[in-house]
Design brief:
The chain is of the alpha/beta class. The chain is built from six helices and six strands; from the N terminus they run E-H-E-H-E-H-E-H-E-H-E-H. The longest helix is centred in the C-terminal third of the chain and has 19 residues.
């Protein structure tokens, strides 16, 4: 496990009921900000392979957030994250194969009767479908295509907006790509 960039984990690394979040980019930052609001008092452990000054600046100012350098494809990092004791696992790195692999391993080792709550970022729609079939439990589908989800929300909000304004305005969208 790499350096702890804010706070000290020390010998008290017997965390329970924490959130493990892999990735330190824009999506992860937005999710951390939302988790701080939604789960008051819960500590959030952010693990990133390549910690940047921008990440240090953003996460360093946040209470209850610990940014560490580590590679989630390394067994020693995964062990140190104490995923089996976590409240939730959020895999939001740009490496979708690593995200899915860790999700499958975590479900197999730590899923238990009710499953480990997780959110898994996957860009490829076919991989999303396959991973959700593997990880599906009780109707949940933890793998999401962030881009598709954002586009669908924009479309829903736009339809609501157009309905409220009775078509008096035109909205144009470009760049959604394949969903």
């Amino acid at each position: 496990l790499g350096d702890v960039y804010r706070g000290q984990l020390g010998d008290e690394w017997a965390w329970r009921d924490h959130i493990v979040l892999a990735g330190g980019g824009r999506v992860a930052r937005a999710v951390v900000d939302e988790c701080l609001r939604a789960f008051p008092g819960t500590r959030i452990l952010v693990v990133e392979k390549r910690v940047t000054d921008s990440m240090l600046s953003h996460f360093g100012a946040l209470k209850r957030v610990y940014l560490i350098g580590g590679d989630t494809t390394e067994p020693s990092t995964v062990d140190a994250l104490r995923i089996g004791h976590a409240r939730a696992l959020m895999l939001l790195t740009n490496d979708e194969l690593a995200n899915v692999e860790l999700a499958v391993q975590s479900e197999a080792h730590f899923g238990g009767e009710n499953g480990l709550p997780m959110l898994v970022r996957v860009a490829d729609l076919d991989l999303t479908d396959r991973a959700n079939r593997i990880l599906a439990r009780g109707g949940r589908q933890p793998c999401v295509n962030i881009h598709k989800a954002v586009a669908e929300k924009i479309c829903r909000d736009s339809i609501d907006y157009m309905t409220e304004n009775k078509g008096r305005e035109a909205l144009v969208f470009t760049g959604f790509g394949r969903f």
